[in-house]
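Cross-posting from the chemistry board since nobody answered there.

I work mostly on the small-molecule side, so proteins are not my area. We synthesized zinc ion and want a rough idea of how it might sit in this target. Sequence and SMILES are below. Is it possible to get a predicted 3D structure of the two together?
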Amino acid sequence: MADVESFTLDHTAVLAPYVRLIGVERGPKGDAISNFDVRFVQPNEGEIPTAGLHTIEHLLASLLRDRIDGVIDISPFGCRTGFHLIMWGEPMIDDVVPAVADSLRAIAEEVTWEDVPGVDAFSCGNYRDHSLHSAREWSRRILDQGISLDPFVRTGV
Ligand SMILES: [Zn+2]
């Protein structure tokens, strides 16, 4: 089986919340695509409940694109402790973290249910499984802890 970088990370050594560059891949014409580990919860010590994670996913899809260019996708980890963020080019973590943090701030402080995109049977695969209440609480908790620029040392925002 192929080696996958994420499975070589020592999940017991990291200090969440943080943003970490997993790697940069290059296409045949030289285009760069960056893959980030956006870790919101300390691995094996907790996880965001599915409904809250789902609502954070829908909101980050819009809020993050409003705050930083080059977002291809942001999708939750199956372990529910964070998200993969895929971006065009080679953005700096120093630019990614404030965009993520301000998106969480908007979820915690500004967003209403009417703002949550795609919460109907037409546009979501499980539209009944959402919780803005949980999304708000977890966003606040992550912001209170601060999002580190380094996965192993608490720094930054
Ligand atoms: Zn959905």
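Reply from a structural biologist on the board:
Welcome over. Reading the output above for you: The helical segments are 50-67, 93-109, 132-145. The chain has a mean pLDDT of 96. Happy to explain the token format if needed.
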